[in-house]
Structure prediction request, 321 residues.
Amino acid sequence: MNEKIKSYQEKIISAKNEIAKKIIWQEELIESLFLSIFSWWHILLEWVPGLAKTESIKAISEIFWASFKRVSFTPDLLPSDVLWWMIFDQKKSEFKIKKWPIFTNFLLWDEINRAPAKVQSSLLEAMAEKQVTIWDETFALPKPFLVMATQNPLEQEWTFPLPEAQVDRFFMKVILWYPSEKEEFEIVQKNLNFEKGDLQQIFSLEEISEIQKICENIYLDENLISYITKIISATRKISEIYPEFKDFIEYWCSPRASISLAKAVQAMAFFEWKDFANPDDVKKVAKRILRHRIWLTYRAEIEWVDADFVIEKILEKVELV
Prediction:
């Protein structure tokens, strides 16, 4: 196992160097995109425009020998604009199905919270089961199929909150932040001098599948699995751990959170060239996996308590047995 992991070390380093040609900072974002791809689950990026969300997704898609499509969500979008459409074939005098952008390997949903509920609900089957049902026929989506979505949390006009069921289907949620002054200087300098062009393709689809299988076989000790489940369980009995948080959490993490956290830990171990995971790996990814699965009450918002703060307190309290 360890030899297989090391065999991909040089390629991942080369991939990081390629992405660095376009993306100066956002190391956590790039790492999260890799973890999402290696786990074969979807990712949601959030913060204001101009922080390289879309550019990072496009950059990482270029280094894989995979198909990539982009859909910009708008309030007037229809499910048929994303999934499929019926087109009349005049020669055969019959309707035929035209498959739309969702039939691809990497799919970028830009400004996902601008689409209305009927569009969001039509995407649940594709995200969860990686297939699309058209009339009485079901079509499997290409492998791998990953949704990489962005949203701007600040604008409220013509935006729609994502359904809880859809949010829970995202493997992780990454909240971006602004670059430092030094990083911003490098960004401006590189954009003034950089010649636009495609990045070198490094990974094939077969290699993605092999990496995904390697990650699935990363060793998780029973004590570590117990540690993961205790963290998730702590979100459901937060009042016992921190009585002052009693009225702060409205909905708790589901078992999908436990599965996602375990898979993220395996991917993180692989990303750091290990064939086993440890508690540090759990702490590195916990916020990204859990922050969108903890639904806070209005009282928490009034008290300026966010999901990341709750997760920090849980990690401080829960111990590895």
In short: The chain is about 45% helix and 15% strand.
